[in-house]
Amino acid sequence: MYKILFLLCFPALILAQQQKTEGTVMNTENEKLSFVKVEVYNAQNALIKELKTDEHGKFVLQGIEKQDVKLIVKNQGYSLFEKKLDLKEPEPLNIVLKKESQEIEGIVMTKRKPLVKRKVDRLEFNVENSNISSLNAWEILKNTPGVTISNSVLSVKGNTGILVTINDKKVMLTGDELKNLLENTQGDEVKSVEVITNPPAKYEASGSAVLNIVLKKNKIEGYRGILSSKYVQTQYAKGVFGLSQYYKKDKLSIMGSYYKGLGTYYREGTDYVNYPESQTRWVSTMNRKDKNNNQNTLNFNVEYELDSLTNLSLNYSGYFSPKSFGTYNVPTLIFNQQDRVESDYTTINDHRSRSINNSVSFQIDRKINKKSSLSWINYFTGNNADKYQNVITYLNFAGQPPKEDNFLTRNKADVQLYSTQFDYQWKGDKLELESGIKYSFVKTSSQLDFSDNENGTLQYRPEKSSIFDYKEHNFALYSSLTYNIGKWNFKGGLRAEMTDLEGVVSEPYELNKSNYWKFFPTFYAQYTTENKQEFGFSYGKRISRPSYSWLNPAKSYYNLFSYYQGDPKLKATITHNLNLTYSWKDWNLDLYYRKEIYPSMEISYQEPSTNSLIYYFTNIEKGEAFGLSFYKNFQVKPWWNIILSENLEHNENYFTGVDRMLYKNKVWNWVSNISTSFTLDKNSDWKMEMGHRYYSPGIQGTFRISSLWSAYFVMNRKFFSKKLEASLIFSDIFRSTEQKVSTKYANQDNYFLDYTDTQGVTFSLKFNFGNQSVKNAKTIKKTAEQDRL
To answer: In whole angstroms, what is the distance from residue 222 CA to residue 777 CA?
Structure first.
């Protein structure tokens, strides 16, 4: 019986052995791709076999009864490969996948690793689907090529005064408020960060460079959502909870998100001031602890396709922090020339603040014909802040009886910005024209009320109080032309801006008015060789207008012996940028030169007659810098990636000191960012990254800033068919980010040590619900229809 069955099955076994096809999957760089999905379909587009390539990119097809089949190879970040096979005559398959993004039924297939792409006028850092998408938007900026962050101040290649935009719309926040907003923006909502060193004429000329954060658009039909939570443990605990919801149906697309942050924020600092006149040394220790249990970030966006030529979009974003509060206990010791404590005082600073920011924008895009389109964009931003402090000082000076002093301040600030802009675009085969007009109006109002103790009661002091009103009208015209000829890309533009400003100080009365036209040319050239090497050149002229708070001359006291003060006569900074770039595959080099005329910045000086340390914004004479940036993404293995980002710069600042002498502060500055990431499973659901950042000593006006370094570790894992995502992050592992900021020239001799509580651990969870993807059957159906075209 067994022999008869064997004889009956023998021909089928022989046939099965003959129907054996081997194949190899690789990319255009001849790298073998492991764990790539290979699917086999019959003539009715029914799936009959599914397998994956091994670690050497190989696969074997055998045991398939059908002889006319279709082979489909899929891998995230590569174009879909499709081929019809005749298994009667099997032959080796050498399949090459192309690294191009391709949109399939609402799914955008992108690379799994961060990608730096050089465009003619910007550098695009794609973070979508990468390890760092588990971070927040603020941490993503730290990982962006050319971007550094020090004490909540952003800089691009050493240049501060950065204009931050989200989807090309200006963010009216700076410093800690901007940091809080971006910390509460989830990284998985960020598609890319555009680093625009020389912004084209379309962008407003303000800001030495532009960082444009591009948020994802919803491309998936139906409803889906993301529920997220994050726990952060540094010196004290913090948390973020949020809900994002997306809906798309036919012509309508809606997105809404809400995030609530809460926790305690900590910062350590120690001030040292040496007074050579009195031969004393003042040492103040300030450990700042603030609670903020109600930070709210909202985003809402709706897009509607009115017809095949017209799109409408409405966007709202808001940040609400109704109460941040804390009490600082700041002891100060005064040492004599024998280095003994001869006097001391203690400051108790009880304070609270609130901040509200609202932004609304409305946009209409209209296609005029196949080559031209028109856009009309309107947006309004309002920023309202209120800061209150009650400061008590207990004085114990040598030769004087102990006494107590008390003062109270309240500072209200309101900023309103309205802008409208028309843009026209015409795009041909080789030429592209952009032209537009923009008008914006800014109105700010700042009121400082000061009261202090007189005979046991608080009295309002009009001479120390102030009202500052500021208005600015800005009118701009721009035009730019792009020309592509063969291997060359050219782009040139000119922007003209008229600025009309008026600043009024109440006490003592002071009026500052100015009206001027400025022209801002830009030029770009890029050459691409046969093997895709890219050589680029760009030039741009920029203007950095002072922040509105910098213009307020009112004295904002930290304690009896220290205060901050702005300057209503601050000049705008003119910056000239030159860049030479080279890119090939994942190699990116940038040689640059920057010249700044009257750069504005915060510096400090000590006043020996009153033993005061004063922080203020001012213009220094000029700044010059040249440097080299390098970025390389090494794909060691399909599952192992290394990123190397380096920047070496020589920077010079020229400033006039308190003795009216001209000084030059210069330094060679090196910024290094090295990271490595691993994919730990076949489905790319488990990823790990670790990295190291180093900043060598730097300068800012009169300041010299010490070096720092930081190490971090990130692990990300997805569960239950990617429905649940968990992340674990260790930041500043060795607590090595303390910096020393010093001033030393003439009779100025002071420094402070600063640590911003960066060492900690973060654990986050995200749950995806609703329709997260389109079924494969739908994709195959579309492919079958394309075959009949």
So the answer is: 17
Between β-strands 341-367 and 310-335, what pairing exists: parallel, antiparallel or unpaired?
antiparallel
> Are residues 69 and 185 in contact, defined by beta-carbon separation less than 8 angstroms?
no
Query: In angstroms, rounded to a whole number, what is the distance separating the alpha carbons of residues 69 and 84?
Result: 6
Tokens of 707: 């070096």
Q: What percent of the chain has pLDDT over 70?
A: 90
Distance CA 143, CA 135 (A): 10
Q: Which residues, 6+ apart, have CB-to-CB distance to 680 below 8 Å?
A: 639, 686, 687, 688
What secondary structure does DSSP assign to 204-251, as a single string? Answer: -SBSSEEEEEEEP---SSEEEEEEEEEEEESSSEEEEEEEEEEEEETT
115 contacts 95 by C-beta, under 8 angstroms: no
Contact 373, 425 (CB under 8 A): yes
pTM of the model: 0.76
Structure-model confidence comparison of residues 171 and 105, the more confident one: 171
Burial class (CB in 10 A: 0-12, 13-18, 19+), 59: buried
| Structural contact between residues 162 and 441, judged by C-beta atoms closer than 8 angstroms | no
Pairing of strands 93-97, 21-27: parallel
Query: Which amino acid is residue 246, in one-letter code?
Result: Y
pLDDT of residue 788: 23
| Cα distances (Å, whole numbers) of residue 769 to 109, 223, 243, 401, 717 | 20, 9, 11, 69, 17
Supply the pLDDT for residue 733. 96
CA distance 267 to 328: 11
CB 376 within 8 Å of CB 364? yes
Peptide bond into 508 cis (omega under 30): yes
Spatial distance between the Cα atoms of 160 and 143, rounded to a whole number of angstroms:
17
In residues, how long is the chain?
A: 789
Yes or no: say if 412 and 468 are a contact pair by the CB < 8 Å rule. no
Q: Are 81 and 28 in contact (CB under 8 A)?
A: no
C-beta separation of 309 from 367 below 8 A: yes
pLDDT tens, position by position, 600-640: 888 888 999 999 999 888 899 999 999 999 999 888 888 89
Structure tokens at 558: 């930290």
Instruction: Provide the strand spans (E) within 397-549.
Output: 403-427, 431-454, 457-460, 466-485, 488-505, 510-528, 534-544
Q: 59-73, 169-183, 411-425: which range is least confident on average?
A: 169-183
Confidence of residue 784 (pLDDT cuts 50, 70, 90): very low
3-class DSSP assignment, residue 132: helix
Identity of the residue numbered 317: S
From CA 351, how far away is CA 368, in angstroms rounded?
56
Q: Are 452 and 445 in contact (CB under 8 A)?
A: no
Strand ranges, E, within 638-738: 640-656, 662-679, 686-695, 698-700, 703-705, 708-719, 724-731
